[in-house]
Design a protein that fits this description.
alpha/beta; Undecaprenyl pyrophosphate synthetase; six-stranded parallel sheet; two-stranded antiparallel ribbon; 9 helices; 8 strands; globular
Length: 261
Amino acid sequence: MQEKAVLDHVVAPRPAGEEPSVAADPRHVAIIMDGNGRWATQRSLPRTEGHRHGVDAVRRLVRAAIEQGTEYLTVFSFSSENWRRPKAEITYLFSLLRRFIRQDVAELHSAGVRIRVIGERDRLDDDIVEMIEECEKITALNNRLNLVVAFNYGGRTEIARTARAIAEKVARGEMSTEEIDEACFAAHMYVPDVPEPDMLIRTSGEKRISNYLLWQMAYTELVFVDEHWPDFDAEIYKRAIAEFSHRQRRYGGCVNAAALA
């Protein structure tokens, strides 16, 4: 019964054969915030300055998302591969996270933003885990904007973690292999009640998804912008949404499918 309750809250995949549609405004936007280091290098500044200005861009993004009526916003703030960066840079990124939580969560809470953090927490310092849990708790009932922060996150890790959780249930006899399908798999992801992203925005001109939301982005529209992340603002966000609105989302179908039948 508990398994069914979870499955009932998973957003169902688009039915096969359904007509393609012109995209409305995206309900869920995912962001890869790229280019902090390049932004700083172009200005002969240390990389840390790029990350510091990148936090300001996050604030502008959240305001823009609220103004545009975006329901879900997922940001890639620290990947599982980012541990390969210099230790001093990692330490600075974690200090920015601590500062952001202390300074911004109260304002986000008053603005009606719900905060959720996805990713593995076993490598994080205890104080960071406590801060994450606290901000998730105090904002849990907010519904103006759902802000999902991917921190120490990797798409392959999430898929492997999900497969392991399902395998453990099968081993304990709590479910059978016949019950495993796409809906079952989606129900065991980090945030199964969050719909799949309609649009991904990646800044800094890079054109790849970098192990981000691999399962969820099967039919996500990809929008790449040339500006580095610290320059991101409401106008760039609106421009990306305008590009998305001209896309025709086929989901494996084709244009004028009825006429071809």
